[in-house]
Amino acid sequence: MTECRQGERPPALFIRWEETILTYLQALQFVHSLGRFGIHPGLERIEALCRALGNPQEKLQFVHVGGTNGKGSTATMLSEILMAQGKKTGLFTSPYVVSFMERIQVNGEPVSEEAFAETIGRIVPIVENLAKQDMQPTEFEVITAAAFDLFAKLNCEVVVLEVGLGGRLDSTNIITTPLVSVITSVSLDHMAILGDTVEKIAAEKCGII
Prior knowledge:
Number of strands: 6
Structural class: alpha/beta
CATH class: Alpha Beta
Helix content: 25-40%
Strand order of the largest sheet: 4-3-2-5-1-6
CATH topology: UDP-N-acetylmuramoyl-L-alanine:D-glutamate ligase
Strand content: 5-15%
Radius of gyration: 16 Å
Largest sheet: 6 strands, mixed
Number of helices: 7
Order of helices and strands: HHEHEEEHHEEHH
CATH architecture: 3-Layer(aba) Sandwich
Number of domains: 1
């Protein structure tokens, strides 16, 4: 099945969708169409989105990983350790090399395209309803909520969750009681959003603790 590769993106248009998205490509088009809404730190939208999905994150246990450098590789290593201990392990990260679904993995394998499309199909009308209430979810918030829903459906015993940006107001911080919170090295990063000193940035990133 054809999909968007790293660096390629379908046109960022907000399209009127049916309640069920039948293809993986349509699901990706919808998700990427939300990119035009940018980055807006805060938990209100992700809370509303997850509430409408039945709060799947509350059924899961998490290892939460933040920091400036190395958080993706740290999250991957932690997931490998958990799998070696026989735990059914979810992994949520931001970058990907070839396929978008590398971002949402269970036991080292990407979740199926069909499962992702089905979950996005459930999310679309929720997003449209929230947009009417002036609570438009962002692209990352929708991906985060979809990951929670998929991990819960697949009965993950523990999920290694990489922060998207910052920590305190990042959508992944909707989780309330992580098993462990990990902070990797901290340096100047996204200064317009997180602050103009390492101390301010560290305070934001430590918001996941």
